[in-house]
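In response to the reviewer comment on reproducibility (Comment 2.3), we provide here a single inverse folding case reported in full, input and output, so that an independent group could reproduce the run without further information from us. The structure tokens appear first.
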């Protein structure tokens, strides 16, 4: 295809014109100063590659937090026709339903001294296992119970006493992918996952204490229950070893499907199968099961976060005002209804490092939020800030109701470790008023703030492009890293 050309549509949208085997144009949401890096790291080429896949509907898209991934770029969004289209593990990623939930409290930043913040983060670190291969010593699952988790998701966790029934309406899909099929999950994946439910994992996964630093939309903030200075808790994790194994298993299977169904690919990492084929249905079933594991995982972690708060403050969660604001997936493919050419049709939307951003009125949005739109949760790096946005009608019209998911990496983990040589990232963050506790020193180096784009610049793009609107900015004060 030669060097990728990005043609400006406006200040925030860049088109990759259709050429060669592309079936549609590419569309990247970014500011002009972001483009060079996007082209250099080959993620723009990946957008063009996705545009060659059979049955793609609309543009092959990428959000401003785009960076190179396996097959699809991280930050990629693409929808496919259910009859002619394909499903691809590369369009979901290895950490199936890596996602984030935000919990709110009645507490404020003034209620926590620097010493209390440290003690609370340490208490969370003791109560929620984290790091590579972490597992709970006080909790284990039988094979039959694990299959129930894979079928029911967060509903299983609530049924077992981990949280409240009211939590479920504030989780994407009610915390349960109903078409999940645990029978498609391999014994190896089951074995990897059975001891990891309720654990944070490693890498960029975290629990973050923050506070509402700035409000941009008072009306929506009030609907979401957010107020100035309010203490909040982010939980960011996914499907752990189980989801990783599901992806690995089906990459092997779908590499063979490409030849079987005569699909011509520019990159074998885009291995896929027709959505209505046995292989495509099997992957969707297993992916849905892994997504349910992740929903249950975040539900249980938030239960132990709440338990930690109760012990720390010596009062019940109700008095502390602990409440789930919302929980959304970042890596998932789902069958959704969207209006295309004036008709409501079902398509399979792949969001990889991208977040649902449904506008007002959609029935999938909790009744309490439906008048304003879906909460959109955008965590940044551990040294700057995070955001709560709200979904828009423009996103529904342009991106199948999708927006960015975070800051997006600019340094690999190896590059970050090299750049942090001779520095104490923890001390640097402490000087900014942020206490960090990590499962290892290497993790903190890998996740140094400079390893990521400035999330405020990413958010400015989607805000100005109309894909989601700013509601509040959060500032971290304490971070627990896997």
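Designed residues, in position order:
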């Amino acid at each position: 295809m030669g060097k990728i050309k990005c043609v400006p549509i406006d200040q925030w949208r860049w088109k990759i014109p259709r050429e060669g085997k592309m079936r549609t144009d590419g569309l990247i949401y970014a500011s002009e100063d972001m483009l060079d890096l996007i082209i250099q790291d080959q993620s723009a080429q990946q957008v063009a590659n996705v545009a060659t896949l059979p049955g793609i509907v609309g543009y092959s898209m990428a959000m401003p937090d785009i960076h190179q991934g396996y097959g699809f770029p991280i930050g990629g969004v693409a929808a496919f026709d259910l009859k002619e289209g394909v499903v691809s593990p590369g369009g979901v990623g290895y950490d199936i339903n890596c996602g984030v939930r935000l919990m709110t409290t009645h507490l404020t930043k003034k209620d926590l001294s620097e010493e209390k913040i440290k003690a609370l983060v340490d208490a969370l670190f003791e109560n929620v296992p984290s790091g590579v291969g972490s597992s709970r010593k006080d909790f284990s699952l039988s094979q039959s119970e694990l299959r129930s988790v894979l079928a029911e998701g967060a509903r299983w966790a609530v049924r077992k006493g981990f949280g409240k029934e009211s939590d479920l309406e504030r989780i994407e899909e009610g915390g349960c992918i109903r078409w999940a099929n645990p029978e498609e999950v391999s014994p190896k994946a089951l074995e990897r996952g059975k001891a990891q439910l309720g654990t944070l994992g490693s890498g960029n996964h975290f629990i973050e204490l923050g506070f509402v630093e700035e409000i941009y939309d008072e009306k929506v903030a009030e609907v979401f229950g957010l107020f100035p200075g309010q203490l909040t808790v982010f939980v960011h994790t996914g499907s752990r070893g189980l989801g990783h194994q599901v992806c690995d298993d089906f990459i092997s299977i779908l590499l063979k499907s490409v030849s079987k169904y005569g699909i011509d690919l520019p990159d074998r990492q885009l291995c896929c199968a027709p959505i209505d084929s046995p292989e495509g249905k099997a992957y969707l079933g297993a992916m849905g099961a892994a997504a349910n594991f992740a929903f249950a995982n975040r539900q249980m972690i938030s239960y132990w976060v709440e338990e930690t708060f109760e012990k720390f403050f010596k009062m019940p969660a109700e008095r502390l005002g602990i409440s789930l604001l919302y929980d959304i997936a970042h890596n998932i493919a789902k069958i959704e209804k969207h209006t295309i050419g004036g008709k409501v049709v079902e398509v399979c939307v792949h969001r990889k490092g991208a977040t649902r951003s449904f506008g007002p009125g959609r029935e999938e949005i909790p009744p309490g939020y439906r008048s304003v739109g879906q909460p959109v949760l955008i965590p940044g790096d551990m040294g700057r800030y995070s955001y709560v946005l709200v979904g828009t009608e423009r996103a529904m019209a342009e991106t199948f109701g999708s927006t960015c998911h975070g800051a997006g990496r600019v340094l690999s983990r190896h590059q970050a470790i090299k750049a942090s040589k001779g520095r104490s990232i923890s001390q640097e963050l402490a000087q900014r008023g942020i206490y960090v506790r990590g499962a290892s020193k290497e993790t903190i180096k890998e996740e140094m703030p400079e390893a990521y784009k400035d999330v405020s610049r990413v958010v400015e793009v989607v805000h100005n492009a109309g894909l989601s609107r700013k509601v509040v900015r959060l500032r971290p004060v304490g971070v627990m890293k896997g």
